[in-house]
């Protein structure tokens, strides 16, 4: 059952089973399970088992199969503060167009395993994703990545150019190399900052940096999927994984390899976005230059051979959530052409 149907059918009562449907500060601070056990995803969740660095881990994914297939598939890769569930509307529309849509939760995210110890790399995540596609018998695929998912999508396209039918980057992070101008934070530093996260801190960050201080009730679900972890008995392990992932993002830029991308590429760039990892730790004069997406989008489009740039005015880091119609139409046109 889809989430929006649940809101219509179910009454708003107190209880873990209804936390997702009836968000509030008190509820959003309740545990939701290490692997989001109490959260219902929009499509059936399945798993593949992976052996990684001495651990047996499960990678969750949704596989939306169209009623009238066009023979093509789209891979949707989530950002750092999200999981595959936020692609629901995108997947609904793409399946209506005949595309098979695969939405994984990367290891460390969403309903996938949270390792006890692991060295994260974008190469590892790309390999895990390739194993998932192989298990589903999917060859060529359109790869769409948002935010951190844009860095992963780029790495996937570089590692598997023959399998990447096209590449779509929606407000990807990593369009600049922060470590050249931002002081380095250790994994322990990131871990300590993650341990003190709260519902209010998470919401205020998203309100400020994603939505330009214009909050809608529909955004609550994405805060809940992070804030609900903060009171979980396993939150230290979740926070440690998050710290390792931040270190991966900060230390493994893909920006220097844009010229090596072979796939037809579309950049969808919300022009209000100013996201930059570690910006607050940089000198004031440097902070003001970081995360300039109007400039970064143009630079990325110039660096990627033949890239097409669509600038979405007045929109921030999450076009497919904040301004869906302005996101889906150029995506649809691009996919149809490639």
Automatic annotation (TrEMBL):
<dbReference type="GO" id="GO:0016020">
    <property type="term" value="C:membrane"/>
</dbReference>
<dbReference type="InterPro" id="IPR029058">
    <property type="entry name" value="AB_hydrolase_fold"/>
</dbReference>
<dbReference type="Pfam" id="PF00561">
    <property type="entry name" value="Abhydrolase_1"/>
</dbReference>
<protein>
    <submittedName>
        <fullName>Pimeloyl-ACP methyl ester carboxylesterase</fullName>
    </submittedName>
</protein>
<dbReference type="InterPro" id="IPR000639">
    <property type="entry name" value="Epox_hydrolase-like"/>
</dbReference>
<dbReference type="InterPro" id="IPR000073">
    <property type="entry name" value="AB_hydrolase_1"/>
</dbReference>
<dbReference type="InterPro" id="IPR050266">
    <property type="entry name" value="AB_hydrolase_sf"/>
</dbReference>
<keyword id="KW-0732">Signal</keyword>
<feature type="domain" description="AB hydrolase-1">
    <location>
        <begin position="73"/>
        <end position="175"/>
    </location>
</feature>
<dbReference type="GO" id="GO:0003824">
    <property type="term" value="F:catalytic activity"/>
</dbReference>
<feature type="signal peptide">
    <location>
        <begin position="1"/>
        <end position="26"/>
    </location>
</feature>
